[in-house]
Amino acid sequence: MSDKNYYIEAHDFNPNAKIISRPDIKFDEAEAGIKLHELHVKPGTKQLVNFKFNGLEIPATFIHGLHDDNKLEKTFVITAGVHPDEYPGIAALVRTANKINPEKLNGHLLLFHCVNLPGFWARSRFVPEDGFNLNSGYPGRPDGTLGERIADFFVKNIFPQADFILDLHSGSPTERLTTCLFYPEDARKDIRDISFNAAMATDIPWVLASHAKDGEYSYAANYMNVPGLLLERGYAGQCREEWIRAFERDIALLLKHFNMYDDLPELTNIPPCRKNICEQTFYLASKHTGLWYPDENIVNSIMEGRLIRKGSRLGHIENFYGEFLGDYYAEADGIIFYYTSGLAIREGEMLVAYGLLN
Ligand SMILES: [Zn+2]
């Protein structure tokens, strides 16, 4: 027998319902809608949901733990597929949704398996209809393009009831990366601290201070005072088993950290790794449009976790006739977090991101 309720399509909820407001959040309550009880997710049960609303469609699982009066119930939101060509997080979330036993959960889990479903089927990083990047276009608009409406949906309906937001990413098909995470360094002190302490509970070795404010979790942290993290594992558009498993472990470690769930010993019995904190990340942007050839220097340093040194060449750009356009050098000692593996690059796009070591 399954512990899941039947799959439902959530398009008939009341979009004008009030949600439980948080005193520290300012938003338009009249616009806010979805509540767990409207989806009939009773304590101790799990509900598969397919959100179809305002032209968007998002597969999700809502899990309502059994109430425990001794503990404060938390709502933990996890999203994958914000960049839908980044696969390991999507697979990890599907598995997590299946593994969690609602009778042993304390609080609420809202798992959005693939936020940008049209992009997933199109194998695109963006929302195909409008080219919207769901990690840099928040807060969106209720009457805007599809991408803007997805962002608006989360701002109005999901973030206000979240106590923590975890967003899962990977390197895209043309990105190689070091396993790392971002926390909202510029958020209100208590929000920054909750996020940072959660980062320490993950199994991710590189902890990067982020100053972004218009992405999914970063908008919620900076403007709605919801703490959160963005995790990065895996690269090159691949979906290796080890990465899926590692994301599952990060989620399990965070659930344990928040005293929400501790019934995945195979994922949590080994303590998390040691952390390196990087307070400044340097983004090397292209000054040319052309064909980008990263040097072996980068490829080797990221594979070996080795430093690149100030002044070392990172790569060069040519045009389509093989004519040289420019060299690119490291401007400081650092560790490479990710780079564009080539070949196409346009002016202003990111070539290499590396962390400056103090
Ligand atoms: Zn991403």
List keywords for this structure.
four-stranded antiparallel beta sheet, 23% helix, 358 residues, 2 domains, alpha/beta, 8 helices, OB fold (Dihydrolipoamide Acetyltransferase, E2P), ten-stranded mixed beta sheet, single chain, disordered N terminus, Aminopeptidase
Characterize the structure shown.
- The protein is α/β, with parallel strands linked by helices.
- The protein folds into 2 domains: 269 residues, 3-Layer(aba) Sandwich (Aminopeptidase), CATH 3.40.630.10; 76 residues, Beta Barrel (OB fold (Dihydrolipoamide Acetyltransferase, E2P)), CATH 2.40.50.100.
- 23% of the residues lie in helices and 27% in strands.
- It is built from 8 helices and 18 strands.
- It has a 10-stranded mixed beta sheet with strand order 1-2-3-5-4-6-10-8-9-11, sandwiched between helices. Strands 7-16-18-12 form a 4-stranded antiparallel beta sheet, covered by helices on one side.
- The N and C termini lie far apart (56 Å).
- Bound molecules: zinc ion.
- The site of zinc ion has 4 residues, from loops.
Short description:
The protein has two domains: 8-276, Aminopeptidase, CATH 3.40.630; 281-356, OB fold (Dihydrolipoamide Acetyltransferase, E2P) (Beta Barrel). Helix content is 23%, strand content 27%. The protein has helices spanning 88-99, 117-121, 146-158, 189-201, 216-224, 241-257, 265-268, 296-304; strands at 8-10, 45-53, 56-64, 75-80, 108-112, 164-169, 175-177, 180-184, 206-210, 228-232, 276-278, 281-285, 290-294, 313-318, 324-329, 334-340, 344-345, 350-356.
